[in-house]
Structure to design on (374 residues):
């Protein structure tokens, strides 16, 4: 993180040692998600997928009929599947390896599968990315060029003038880290080439300020004394009626200070709530056989409670936000500790919480935000 993060590219050979270890034993480790499974996933509405073909370039959004996806031995195509951590445990596992970077920055894991010659063209990303080779080989060419102009005549964001400065061929288990705005071009060298990309969120400062201020304004609904009407019994006659009254400015200034709205601590909960919101396309399938409160409590004493793969949980000090909601406000210390465990470990180990109010945990379970380990 000190030497490379947001600064310069890093090639890591054998980032996943299992590939090399098994090859030494004359075994072959392949991607845990097959071509057949990826084609099946690309046909589902719940999976965000894209199909890119070159020679000539074309770009289509899924879901796709299975017959519309090229066979694995065809040339010059790439299938991209976004947010795979929500659809396959292997993707979720690998994404969890990157929690040395704050959860608020972590976005999702995208799987790319391609035929020989497949790629998305030379381009750049506005965020950090780790490119992990999971099956077959891919040639990567990169450049730190400042000319990031795009070709306006293509359906994809492809650089107009790409000038390669470095290149490598990545084998299964290798990984390439690229900071934002490093131009790169990856070409599949083998049929069924799979590259898994771990991407990061990079919201604008404007976006963070707008979302934080909006939620801060909403929080004023819980302060009944603010309903009082503005009064100015000391207002004098004025010769400048067009000017905003000084008394109004003074009263608002005093109220802002009293509420602490001029302090970052009041602003940050809204930012944390925003960053903990799930993706717009996230789906939480509620089980038709939901437990009662007592059944939930009994099962919690025997089974671990996990965050749903599409659930986002973030902490701000001792406060915990789950899918945009503050789950620890007004809760007992035992329940707060339970949510803190879910935030830190994405898991709450089996425990007896006694007769304390478990409603926040139970409500999150009813919404399928939390699920029991099976």
């Amino acid at each position: 993180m000190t030497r490379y993060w947001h600064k310069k590219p890093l090639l890591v050979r054998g980032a996943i040692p299992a590939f090399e270890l098994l090859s030494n034993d004359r075994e072959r480790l392949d991607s845990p998600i097959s071509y057949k499974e990826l084609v099946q996933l690309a046909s589902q509405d719940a999976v965000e997928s894209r199909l890119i073909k070159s020679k000539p370039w074309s770009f289509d959004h899924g879901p796709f009929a299975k017959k519309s996806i090229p066979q694995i031995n065809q040339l010059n195509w790439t299938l991209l599947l976004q947010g795979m951590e929500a659809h396959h445990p292997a993707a979720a596992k690998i994404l969890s390896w990157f929690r040395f970077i704050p959860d608020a920055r972590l976005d999702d894991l995208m799987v790319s599968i391609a035929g020989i010659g497949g790629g998305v063209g030379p381009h750049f990303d506005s965020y950090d990315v780790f490119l992990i080779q999971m099956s077959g080989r891919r040639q990567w060419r990169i450049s730190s060029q400042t000319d990031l102009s795009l070709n306006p005549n293509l359906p994809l964001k492809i650089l107009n003038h790409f000038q390669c400065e470095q290149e490598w061929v990545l084998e299964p288990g290798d990984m390439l880290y690229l900071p934002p705005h490093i131009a790169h071009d990856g070409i599949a060298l083998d049929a069924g080439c799979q590259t898994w990309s771990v991407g990061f969120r990079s919201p604008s400062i404007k976006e963070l300020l707008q979302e934080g201020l909006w939620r801060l304004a909403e929080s004023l609904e819980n302060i009944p004394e603010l309903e009082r009407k503005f009064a100015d019994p000391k207002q004098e006659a004025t010769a400048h009626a067009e000017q905003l009254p000084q008394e109004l400015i003074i009263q608002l200034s005093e109220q802002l200070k009293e509420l602490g709205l001029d302090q970052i601590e009041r602003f940050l909960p809204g930012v944390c709530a925003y960053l903990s919101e799930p993706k717009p396309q996230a789906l939480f399938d509620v089980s038709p056989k939901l437990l009662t409160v007592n059944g939930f409590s009994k099962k919690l004493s025997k089974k671990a409670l996990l965050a749903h793969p599409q659930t986002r949980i973030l902490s701000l000090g001792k406060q915990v936000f789950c899918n945009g909601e503050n789950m620890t406000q007004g809760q007992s210390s035992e329940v707060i500790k339970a949510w803190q465990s879910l935030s830190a470990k994405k898991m709450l180990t089996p425990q007896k919480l006694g007769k304390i109010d478990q409603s926040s945990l139970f409500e999150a379970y009813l919404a399928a935000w939390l699920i029991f380990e099976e």
Notes: The radius of gyration is 26 Å. Residues 38 and 96 are 21 Å apart (CA to CA). The first helix runs from residue 18 to 24.
